Amino acid sequence: MSPNARPKNDTFLRALLREPVEYTPVWLMRQAGRYLPEYNETRRRAGSFLQLCKNPQLACEVTLQPLARFELDAAILFSDILTVPDAMGLGLYFAEGEGPKFERPLREEWAIRDLTAPDPNVHLRYVMDAVAEIRRALHGSVPLIGFSGSPWTLACYMVEGGSGAATDYRAVKSMLYDRPDLMHHILAVTARAVTDYLNAQIESGAQAVMIFDSWGGALSHAAYRVFSLDYMRRIVAGLKRSHDGERVPCIVFTKGGGQWIEAIADIGCDAVGLDWTSDLGEARRRVGNRVALQGNLDPMALFAAPDKVAAEARRVLDSYAADPADARKAGGHVFNLGHGISQFTPPDSVKILVDTVHSHSRRGSARG
User: Fold this and answer.
1) pTM for this entry
2) In whole angstroms, what is the distance from residue 203 CA to residue 313 CA?
């Protein structure tokens, strides 16, 4: 099979391209992760999270684990957004209980000026090998999603030196306001790196790609457009949009980016991801037929009782349009969480969610 031939279940790809679908496809951000006991066992065998990421066979194993449990409509490469700055020489490591850290954060001007984009087929070869391994293992069943962090999100980690980006962003925002020339240099180099990285994933077999702008919502209105959106626009413009005769859709997701939905839709992506603070119906009215939408259940809803989980799934589906049947027949919606799944989520709740999305959207289609 050609690496990018349409899979047997191509509902996810059709929805992204706003083609008719029989039901609303569903996948979950962080669907391969610590909420699954089998994942924890594989991670234990790997020795560490980073060793798991850098072992193509084990990365393939954990990528497929949620698909064995749930009727998901896509697989997503198991990796980490920080593999790119690690390949840039910043020295990624994970401190127990503290999250990711860099041995050499970007604080000095000379280090920033020396920053270069890595060759993904050399310095990130293990990711490309994992993509190819997963595509073979999927046997054309469902599509494989590749991904990267956005330049701004990666820069937050690179300048802050780790997950301190999740607090007050003091170091990275100080640079943004005081030395925008240095910040633009980091973002320009990182945008080139991300473009090359995603294109290499596409060449290795990824059938859709997603840009995670996890920290974009922390920027001011003006700064978002200049320091995040414009660089994602560059990436989207440089992406391979077809491979082996098949379209390769691109999803852009800014957490906390609900006020910028129209602007994101205008950068040329195929779909805009939404967190749980946005209303899907309103978002659809705002973007019209320009893009598909992905989202957007609050991950914490999965801790509710089973009937409440199902009710929330139905609410999200029905919020996509006043007439859910017509909306689903037209395509354009991929069901997902508004951010990554919590490590404490009961797996049974995920099954209820996935099954409800499929059954409720199929009934809606039948009513149409």
Assistant:
1) 0.95
2) 35
What's the CA gap between 215 and 150, in Å, rounded? 9
Report pLDDT digits (tens) over 181-239. Answer: 999 999 999 999 999 999 999 999 999 999 999 999 999 999 999 999 999 999 999 99
Per-residue confidence band for 164, with pLDDT thresholds at 50, 70 and 90? low
Annotation says 179 is catalytic: no
Q: Residue 84: which residues within 8 A CB-CB, separation 6 or more?
A: 118, 124, 148, 149, 154, 190, 193, 194, 197
> How many other C-beta atoms are found inside a 10 Å radius of the C-beta of residue 237?
11
Q: How far apart are CA 336 and CA 315, in angstroms?
A: 13
**157 catalytic per annotation:** yes
Cα separation, 29 vs 25, whole angstroms: 13
Residue written as tokens 């659809």?
284
Looking at residue 330, what is its pLDDT? 57
Dump the DSSP string for 199-220. Answer: HHHHHHT-SEEEEEETTGGGS-
Whether residue 169 has pLDDT greater than 60:
yes
- For residue 48, what are its two tokens? 């560490």
Tokens 């962080």, residue located? 30
Is 114 a residue of the active site? no
243-273 tens-digit pLDDT:
999 999 999 999 999 999 999 999 999 999 9
Q: Note the pLDDT tens digit of each residue in 268-283.
A: 999 999 999 999 999 9
| Residue recorded with tokens 């270069």 | 116
Catalytic, 266? Answer: no
Catalytic residue among 10, 73, 80, 86: 80
For this structure, is 44 an active site residue? no
Pairwise CA distance, residues 316 & 335, whole Å:
8
Bridging pattern class, strands 246-247 and 242-243: antiparallel
